[in-house]
UniProtKB/TrEMBL annotation:
InterPro entries: RUS_fam (IPR006968), UVB_sens_RUS_dom (IPR054549). Residues 143-378 form the Protein root UVB sensitive/RUS domain. It comes from the Eukaryota. Belongs to the RUS1 family. This is Protein root UVB sensitive/RUS domain-containing protein.
Length: 566
């Protein structure tokens, strides 16, 4: 971004938008200048010749590229009288001081351009020197924050990025303090003096890289892609696991004979926490990127974490030194000051993680988010149908209904539960791609399974299969769905919606008399299939328009449990 001060002598009262394309100095300017936006303001009328200022402005402004506004038709001719440009550049979101400005002059007679520094344009007498001004600029809050924020902040990230980064910084500072305190307690349990600290560090390193990393590998193999589908949940669990590991280290002096076992368990927990935290960080940073700048956001996140770690470690060292002073008092138990200091930082570490996670909006579809959206749609469609049957309102188009009923990712994120266990809004459960063998060997259930894979009740053939596991008299316990190996993302969304619609219909029976077994099951599945055929195509369009990533699905366990029927 550039700020130009044009020195000219136009007639008084001229106010125009000037672009470099009509300037006689156009050939002297860099090529990039021609593609930028500028706003020209005429200086107030003075006895001296007025100065016209050109400043950059955003696309959201009412001004637009190539649009000229003038109160005088001679303004274009006045542009030919321009002789010099005073240039200042915007660096890291801050205008550079005047001593870093330049002047660009053109001699119309010789058709030559000169480019020189405005070193003489210094601050008024009595102010700081050029060197002091430069130091102040480099150490200014804007310049300092620019080191830790993505390039182009805040335009290149979502509005939620700044509050997330603040709480994340506090979270990392508190975590570093608890790590220092727990490590001091671990060293105390070993009975080490100041001269034996390197030995303790080496032992702790061996345990962490051995048993600790092995535990992290096993943990990652079980969690798999759930890091991507539920980043907030596993990030919160990682924080709790880390603090639990720190508590074990803190209490190690109570059982000094079991030091190796306790330290090993603690390091396994820490490695699991580090792995979960690093695995979810990329997915969470992705939600803040607006200009395909995930790498920049991730890099600055690492810088913020490092800075917070340094601050927390320094604070922890100071606190540890104070605790050592209290430990010398024979009337005070050694663990008491450690625990009293550790507890508030540990609680604040978990709380700040919880607060920062509320600013993360995940737009991919997993089972909880998809159930939230589909339940809201199914419930709304039923209510509007009842209102229409009563004559209170006219029948609206399905697309218009979905526009009102489909929530945005931000609305779902605000209601998303990631601390406690997830509870489905549907009373009838769902089971996705279970082992077929558990149904094929249960006598009459095998007959129902045969109807399922022949798609009894389906209006047309689909690359998925739905079965109702239960009866009308005793209540359906759950709806089971399998997907064919040829199923695409659209088919998976329709199959899951079909299963949710089936669950909603089963909940609405409320003990009404129905035909039993296969006929009853086929009737329910058929009714739900007709609705899914009508709704799902428009539903996907509306969800895409509201920011949902319908091509990023975590509704199944990949392709591992798909079936093929020949």
């Amino acid at each position: 971004m550039l700020q130009f001060l044009w020195s000219s002598r136009p007639p008084p009262g001229i106010s125009s938008l000037y672009t470099p394309s009509v300037s006689p100095l156009r050939s002297c300017l860099p090529a990039q200048i021609g593609s930028r936006y500028y706003r020209i303001r005429s200086a107030p009328k003075q006895s001296a010749p007025p100065t016209t200022c050109i400043k950059p402005f955003s696309e959201s402004s009412a001004w637009r590229r190539g649009r000229f506004l003038s109160t005088d038709s001679s303004s274009a001719n006045n542009a030919a009288t321009q002789k010099s440009l005073n240039i200042r550049q915007l660096k890291s979101g801050t205008w550079l001081p005047k001593w870093q400005a330049f002047t660009l002059s053109r001699d119309d007679r010789s058709s030559t351009c000169t480019f020189q520094s405005l070193a003489g344009d210094k601050a008024p007498k009595g102010n700081a020197s050029d060197e002091e001004l430069g130091a102040r600029h480099l150490l200014s809050p804007q310049t300092t924050l620019a080191v830790f924020l993505p390039k182009g902040f805040p335009e290149t990230v979502t509005p939620n990025y700044w509050p997330f980064a603040k709480w994340q910084f506090i979270h990392n500072v508190a975590g570093s303090v608890t790590a220092v305190i727990s490590t001091q307690s671990l060293l105390f349990a070993m009975g080490l003096g100041a001269g034996s600290v390197p030995m303790a560090a080496a032992l702790n390193w061996i345990i962490k890289d051995g048993l600790g990393q092995l535990g992290g590998v096993v943990y990652a193999s079980f969690v798999s892609d759930k890091f991507d589908s539920e980043p907030k949940r596993f990030r919160f669990q990682a924080t709790v696991a880390m603090q639990g590991a720190n508590v074990l280290e803190l209490l190690t002096p109570l059982w000094p004979g079991s030091f190796l076992i306790i330290a090993s368990i603690s390091n396994i927990g820490k490695n699991m926490a580090w792995l979960a935290s690093s695995a979810t960080r990329a997915q969470m940073n992705k939600t803040f990127a607006l200009r395909d700048n995930l790498g920049d956001i991730t890099g600055k996140s690492g810088s913020q974490t490092t800075a917070a770690g340094l601050v927390g470690t320094g604070l922890g060292v100071v606190i540890a030194a104070l605790m050592s002073h209290f430990a010398e008092d024979p009337t005070v138990l050694p663990l008491v000051p450690m625990c009293l200091t550790f507890l508030p930082f540990s609680i604040f570490n978990i709380y700040s993680n919880y607060r920062s996670s509320h600013y993360v909006t995940t737009s991919s579809l997993n089972v909880p988010r998809a159930e939230t959206v589909f339940y809201n749609v199914l419930k709304g469609l039923v209510q509007e149908k009842e209102e229409c049957s009563k004559g209170n309102q006219t029948v609206a188009d399905v697309a218009q209904q979905l526009e009102r009923l489909v929530p945005t990712p931000i609305e779902v994120a605000h209601a998303e539960v990631f601390v406690s266990a997830y509870r489905s809004p549907f009373r009838v459960g769902i089971e996705i791609e279970p082992a077929i063998s558990q149904y094929a060997c249960q006598g009459k259930r095998a007959e129902i399974l045969d109807y399922t894979f022949r798609q009894a009740g389906f209006v047309r053939k689909e690359p998925y299969y739905i079965m109702i596991n239960g009866s009308a008299q005793h209540g359906a316990s759950k709806v089971v769905v399998w997907f064919d190996k040829e199923a695409k993302d659209v088919n998976i969304i329709q199959g899951f919606y079909h299963a949710c619609a089936t669950r909603a219909i089963l909940e609405n029976y409320n003990g009404q008399p129905v035909v039993e077994n296969e006929t009853w099951s086929s009737t329910v599945i058929n009714k739900a299939h007709e609705q899914s055929i009508e709704v799902v195509p428009r539903l996907i369009e509306v969800m895409n328009g509201k920011g949902w990533e319908t091509d990023s699905l975590f509704l199944t366990d990949g392709d591992h449990d798909r079936i093929q029927i020949e």
